[in-house]
């Protein structure tokens, strides 16, 4: 369940899934009952041993307190909160279908929701089955029979037709529930309601609090990301379900050899709760840049159970307990590895999104004992102004309960987003720091200023002393990728200047410095949408022209010996490869 919290002026959401899942009775077939018609099986389609896409169906619950009326996909959803919710649920389900697959299935798959066996003839208060308060249509249910003391059994409700070609059924309900009314900042919450005979989730409900679906503070992408988080809980990323995960041998038809995992979570010597299954342990080690496997992935301390990653270690992952917008959230490799460890799914790991937070920082990263010691620039100290680690926003160095005293640059209130053009200066307004707000702008630590240049505009900026007291702070400047991990920056009124990752550069026309972050920008660059290409890709004539401009022009702070040597080398390589001449 997501709560909207105000943290440094920015809307941040917190999930309370464990509380929600505890309130639900998980239905599972009794050993004496036939299993639901859908199940993983070695009896596969002829010639098919490959995993099949996970078929997630969404159904909109119209009025759970009525007679169970429901609407199939596409019916009566032309507008309003219910249309927004169903569109988000379908989009989230479609995205997961490209990431999670099931083992070979029987055909056709057929799903029926179990009943609890309550008898309406003996219990006048019985109004049918529900999943997290949402009434399940009778057509989806298995029937039940009354066995009187004398006489033959009486069929009270026959089996419904069920749902064809479905692996997981998600009920979508937009409502003003008591939870929504009692905690008006709740966006949505979800729970799993039924398991199959192998404990794999078969059905669940997501409830959206209607007042948030039309809120201007939440975009459609935000609602989709919230839905993805809740859907992943219902599919198995849950403290209530960890103990049901399966240990299955690899191979196309070995499902019958699965067993319940003996240990999924444990506490280390410091009392930290860890998820310790193989795939997540190796995935975290790769993320932190260490060989082998990590001891496990820390979980957020939320009582005896936890359904979220530790925020200090995996900030920005979709399965941390806080959510601060779709732009700052990733469906990361470690989360997908957890679903591989569940034993219920196969995972398309290539579909994971790169998680920048803590990448390559080693096993000591994210510890309370090290986060304030300056061991990593992902954390900060004091209460100054800087840049959020994704460099989309200016930020304030602060903490929250999830960080347990560690501090990071958290996005400021409205107006701090570098990527919003509307945050820029109006025409004619003074802009002494040369900031540019644009969709391709990012936040950089800088103390650039044009004020000092007025004292002596004939002198070059590098020759004008900059006051030491001008602290570096978060500023917005244009950037463009030139190759993976390499980029250029531009301030107001300047040309593009190469920004060497890990270095401080000067910008012609401005006094001061700009720091170029390492390993944060242009990490997924593939050569598209760049304003300019890397120099080595230019034809020899263009390279010679660029080199002549650099050599003939006045010396500047952005053109150093290292850059000129690199450009000269590129020209020589291009000429040699084209003309076959010697160097």
List the helices and strands and how they pair.
Elements (H helix, E strand, L loop, with lengths): L1 E6 L2 E6 L1 H6 L29 E2 L2 E6 L8 E2 L9 H17 L2 E3 L7 E2 L18 E2 L2 E2 L8 E3 L7 E4 L5 E2 L3 E8 L2 H5 L5 E8 L5 E9 H4 L6 H16 L10 E2 L11 E2 L4 E3 L5 E3 L2 H11 L8 E2 L12 H4 L7 E2 L9 H9 L4 E2 L37 E3 L6 E5 L9 E4 L29 E6 L26 E11 L2 E5 L6 E3 L4 E2 L8 E2 L24 H13 L8 H19 L4
Parallel strand pairs: 4-13, 13-15
Antiparallel strand pairs: 1-2, 2-21, 3-6, 4-5, 6-22, 7-12, 8-9, 10-11, 14-15, 16-17, 18-19, 19-20, 23-24, 24-25, 26-27, 27-28, 28-29, 30-31
Helix pairs in contact: 2-5, 6-8, 9-10
Which terms summarize this structure?
583 residues, alpha+beta, five-stranded mixed beta sheet, four-stranded antiparallel beta sheet, 10 helices, 18% helix
Q: Indicate the radius of gyration in whole angstroms.
A: 29 Å
End-to-end Cα distance? 65 Å
Secondary structural class: alpha+beta
Overall 3D shape: elongated
Largest sheet features: 5 strands, mixed
The overall strand count is 31
Strand order of the largest sheet: 5-4-13-15-14
Percent helix: 10-25%
Runs in which pLDDT lies below 50 for 5 or more consecutive residues are 3-11, 31-48, 65-77, 453-457, 464-469, 528-567, 569-583
Q: What's the average pLDDT?
A: 78
The proportion of residues in beta strands is 15-25%
Q: Give the number of helices.
A: 10
């Amino acid at each position: 369940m997501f709560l909207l919290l105000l943290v440094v002026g920015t809307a941040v959401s917190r999930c309370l899934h464990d509380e929600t899942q505890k309130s639900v009775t998980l239905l599972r077939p009794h050993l004496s009952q036939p299993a639901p018609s859908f199940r993983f099986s070695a009896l596969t389609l002829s010639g098919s041993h490959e995993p099949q896409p996970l078929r997630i169906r969404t159904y909109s619950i119209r009025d759970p307190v009525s007679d169970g009326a429901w609407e199939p996909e596409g019916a009566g959803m032309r507008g309003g909160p219910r249309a927004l919710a169903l569109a988000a649920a379908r989009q989230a389900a479609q995205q997961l279908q490209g990431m999670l697959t099931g083992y070979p299935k029987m055909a056709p798959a057929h799903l029926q929701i179990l009943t609890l066996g309550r008898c309406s003839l003996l219990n006048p208060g019985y109004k049918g089955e529900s999943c997290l308060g949402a009434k399940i249509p009778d057509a989806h249910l298995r029937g039940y029979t009354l066995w009187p003391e004398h006489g033959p059994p009486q069929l009270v409700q026959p089996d419904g037709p069920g749902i064809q070609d479905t692996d997981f059924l998600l009920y979508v309900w937009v409502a003003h529930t008591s939870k929504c009314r009692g905690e008006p900042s709740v966006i949505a919450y979800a729970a799993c309601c039924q398991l199959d005979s192998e404990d794999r989730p078969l059905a669940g409900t997501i409830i959206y609090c209607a007042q948030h679906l039309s809120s201007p503070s939440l975009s459609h992408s935000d609602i989709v990301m919230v839905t993805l988080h809740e859907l992943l809980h219902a599919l198995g990323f849950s403290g209530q379900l960890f103990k049901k995960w399966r240990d299955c041998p690899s191979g196309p038809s070995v499902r019958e050899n699965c067993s319940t995992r003996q240990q999924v979570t444990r506490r280390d010597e410091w009392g930290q709760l860890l998820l310790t299954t193989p795939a997540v342990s190796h995935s975290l080690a790769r993320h932190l840049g260490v060989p082998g496997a990590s001891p496990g992935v820390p979980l957020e301390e939320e009582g005896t159970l936890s359904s979220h990653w530790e925020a200090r270690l995996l900030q920005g992952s979709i399965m941390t307990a806080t959510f601060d917008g779709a732009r700052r959230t990733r469906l990361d490799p470690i989360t997908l590895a957890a679903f591989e460890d569940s034993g219920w799914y196969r995972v398309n790991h290539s579909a994971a999104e790169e998680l920048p937070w803590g990448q390559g920082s080693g096993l000591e990263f994210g510890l309370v004992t090290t986060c304030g010691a300056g061991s990593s620039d992902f954390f900060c100290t004091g209460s100054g102004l800087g840049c959020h680690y994704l460099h989309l926003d200016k930020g304030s160095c602060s903490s929250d309960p999830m960080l347990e005293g560690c501090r990071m640059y958290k996005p400021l209130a409205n107006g701090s987003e570098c990527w919003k053009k509307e945050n820029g200066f109006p025409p004619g307004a003074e802009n002494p720091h040369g900031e540019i707000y644009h969709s391709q702008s990012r936040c950089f630590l800088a103390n650039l200023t044009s004020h000092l240049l007025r004292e002596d505009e004939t002198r070059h900026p590098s020759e004008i002393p900059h006051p030491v007291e001008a602290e570096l702070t978060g500023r917005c400047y244009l950037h463009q990728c030139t190759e993976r991990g390499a980029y250029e920056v531009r301030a107001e009124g300047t040309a593009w200047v190469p920004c060497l990752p890990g270095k401080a550069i000067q910008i012609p026309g401005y006094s001061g410095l700009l720091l170029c972050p390492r390993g944060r920008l242009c990490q997924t660059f593939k050569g598209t949408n760049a304003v300019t290409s890397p120099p080595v890709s230019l034809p020899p004539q263009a390279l010679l022209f660029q080199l002549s401009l650099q050599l003939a022009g006045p010396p500047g702070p952005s053109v150093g010996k290292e850059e000129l040597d690199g450009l000269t080398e590129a020209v020589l390589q291009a000429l040699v490869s084209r003309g076959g001449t010697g160097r």
